[in-house]
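Let us begin with a simple case.
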Amino acid sequence: MKTRKNKTRLRLLSVLAVLSLVLAACGGGEEGGIEQYQENGITIGIANEIPYGYEDEATGEVTGEAPEVARGVLDELGIEAREFVVVEFGALIGGLQAGNFDMIAAGMYINPDRAQQILFSDPDYCVLESMLVPEGNPAGLTNYNSVADTDASLAVASGTVNVDYAHWAGIPEDQIVEFAGIEDQYDALAAGRVDAVSGTILTVQQHANSMDGFEALPAFPALDEEGNPILGCGGYGFLNEDLRNEFNRVLNEKQETGEVQQIVNDIFGAPLADDAAELTVEEITGCESVMCPSDG
């Protein structure tokens, strides 16, 4: 026969078990220090998006802004063995939660919704938006909101912030076309199945340079639900809190010396790491909108 003390203990254990599941679902993190990664290596998720993180077709090597910064930080942490896993952008968070990889290095924007699901490092770059359109911009587009004033169709990649940006801009559902992969959008534009593709100015400009007959719109900020401008700032995603904290510590040290800014700005070809070096993940996710730039 169980005593009251034992019943109370069992109830407490049940509550703790439920609480641990809730914390894990909300990005509470995996257990264990970074020694496991120093001994066994680390698996890193990327989305094959140029210039953020991608597999070079000619060499088969993984490169891009996020992997290159990550390599410098992981070297400092003594984590030498690395395996990269390529998935669709929309599968990155789910893949991390499922244990398919240990961190995300894909230039993923930090925002409050994602921060409820995974742990983020501080940002290492901030950037504005753009769209790829046919040369001459026949629909006269300038930003997300301008699409709502036309009958143009806009491509967005599933799982990206661009889906929210399009909805917040009031674009009708029948004008928003979702694609599973980043490159799928550009294939659709080239085939004439959509009128514009949304994305960061860096990704859009890359495709403008490689696709004849198309041009990138001048960079612009997206607007949140209340009409406030959004500056997208990217970081690295984790579940293991010890790994995130140690990665963040070294990232901050390398930002203080300018090493991160050098890598980011060289790869991007623009000074996009400077604002990010002054921001923290708490400042970004704690804002009423996502935008927390140092210049207000």
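The second case is a distinct protein. As before, the sequence precedes its structure tokens.
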Amino acid sequence: LADPYYLYLRNYAEQYCRDKRIRTLHLLEQGGVYRADLAGSFEGILAIGIFSEEQIRTLHRLCPKLVFLDSSPDESRFDSVVLNYRVGIEQALDSLLSLGHTRIGFLGPAAKLDQKKRPAPEVRRQYFIQYMQEKGLFDPAFLLDAPMTAPEARAVVSCRLESGEPMPTALIAANEEAAIGAVSAARAAGIRVPQDLSIISFNDTVLSTLTDPPLTSISTHVEEMSHLAVDLLSRRVSLGADALPLKVVVPPSLIQRESVCPPGR
């Protein structure tokens, strides 16, 4: 819940439930036990984010009518709504290449927890590497490993700028927090965004419109993802726990704003 992305998913889901006159309860975990924040029974569970195998078993014991939003830990058993990260990265890279960028970097962690909370390579970074390798443009020196928070991303970009090592002309950031950190580091070093460094963010919440300059961003369609998950849960409650599980894969969209321009302009 410290990540604005997940707060948006939850808030949109709750608002959609209110619109459909569906009552919601929050399940709070303490010591491996989930408890409802209000008294009352519930007919289904919408699980937002990633969960360990033990957490999934615990949720399933509480209620087998279970839908996952932003993860798909077992598509043979559970309904889920997830994002097609590959499409988003390819859209961003296609846009940068069409503008003439060839020195493109990625800002984000090398590893992250997978859909069952196990350490794994970060998927956006992996798709970035694969696509750039296919184009013959991959340069490992342009992988800037940084946590997905603004202060830590700023520190990594600042350190790189101070080192005097070659910089890419464009960066794709793993999320908005990292992108905001990169913009801040560039400004402090006298680097202009986008004239000297183009930056593309991932997620496209309202934060992307509030930065200076506003961020070109890969929209994850958080509102639509949340609505789809609630609709899947309504279907699951209606059909029962044994109905065929569905997995919805949402394609992101690139939203053009002012943080990107051709290189060397």
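Residues 158 and 188 are 8 Å apart (CA to CA). The two ends are 40 Å apart (CA to CA).
Keep these points in mind for the review questions at the end of the chapter.
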